[in-house]
Amino acid sequence: MTDSTNNNAKPVRKGEELNWKALDLHLKTAISGLAGRPQISQFYGGASNLTYRLKYGRQDLVIRRPPFGTKAKSAHSMIREYKILKSLKPVYPSVPEVLYYSDDEHVIGSEFYVMRKVQGQVVKDTIPPEWNFKVKDTRQFCIAFWEKLIELHRLDYVEAGLGEFGKPEGYAKRQVLGWNGRYEHAITSDVNEFSDVRNWLVENLPPENDRHSILHGDFRIDNVILDNNNPCKIVAVLDWEICALGDPLMDLGNALAYWTQADDPAYLKSLVMQPSAAPGMLNRREILDFYQQKTGIDTSDFTFYEVYGYWRNTVILQQIYYRYFHGQTKDQRFGIFGQIVQKLGEHCQRLISA
Prior knowledge:
This protein is α+β, with helices and mostly antiparallel strands and 354 residues long. The protein contains eleven helices and nine strands. It has helices spanning 20-30, 78-88, 105-108, 135-153, 171-186, 195-203, 248-257, 266-269, 284-295, 303-325, 337-353, and strands at 39-43, 50-56, 59-65, 98-102, 112-116, 213-215, 224-226, 234-237, 244-246. The strands form three sheets. Strands 1-2-3-5-4 form a five-stranded antiparallel sheet, with helices on one face. It starts with 19 loop residues before the first helix and ends with a helix. Mean pLDDT is 92; it is low at 1-6.
C-alpha cells in the first residue's frame, strides 16, 4: 500500500517471511489470471499489520496480515479491514480494490486479505521539488486533501452497508477513557501523570448528538496515494485499521494534532510527518473554518477536540517510550520521546487554561 513511482517495497524483513509456496498456490486458485512466480517484497511503513507485495506480471497485489504472535484479533482484524474497504469502494472510490479474504490459517499462519496495488505516489515530510509547486499550487493540494476527509464524513454509512459496523453513540467517551487508561499503564518516573488533563477530558466530554460519520482515525498526507500526473488528485486513502463510527470532530481533532504550522513551537515541529507547514498550506484555524463552511458543523469552540488529539498523540508516544525506558527496545530514536511527552502534556494543559 504505497507508491509505484518511487516504490519503497523492500526485501522481506528477517523473521517476517511467509510460506510463499502455499500462498502462491492458494492465490492462484482464488484469483484468476495469476501465472508464473511472483516477485515478492514488503512495505516497511507502519508498526502494526504487515503488508507485502506479490507481483505477477501485470497483476500487482498487496497482502495484509496481522503481526506475528498476536492473539487479539479485535485489534488486528483482517476481515474488518476487508469489509470496510469492500463496502466503501462503491460510494468512496478513493480506497484500494479488495479482491479476496481468507481465514484459513494453514496458508500463512493467520487470516489475510488481498487488494490490488494502487498506482500513484506518496509524499512524506516535504513536497517533492520536481512538482515545481508555487504557493497557489500548495494551497490547491491542501484543499484537495481536506476535502477528501470531508467527503468521507458526509457519506451515509448506513447506505454504504456499514450501519452495523460499530456503535457511534458514546464513541468520544470510550476513546477518552481508553487513552487515559493506556497512559496510566505506561507512566514512567520521569514524566508527569497529567491527571489534570485526563480528568478535564472526562469532565468536558461533548454532549451526545446524532452527528455520526465514518471516521478514518489516522488521516495524514503520508496516508494517501496521489495521481502520478496530478498530485492534487487523491486516488486512494490507506490504513483503515482503526476506522470507526462516531463524532466526525474527533477524527478532525486527530488529524489536526498531526498538522504543524510555521509558528508552532519546536516540540510540535519535531513530530512532523507531512509537509503541512509549507507556504500555501492552510493553518489549523483556516482548516476549521473550511470544514465548517463545507459541512455546516460548528467548529468555533474546538478546544475539547484539540486537547483530545494532542493527548492521544501524547499517549501513543509514551507507550513507545515506556518500552524504551524499561529496556524492551534499544532503538535510540525513542530516547527523546519522554521529553516530547512532557512537552505535549504541558501543551494540553496550556490549551485547557487558555
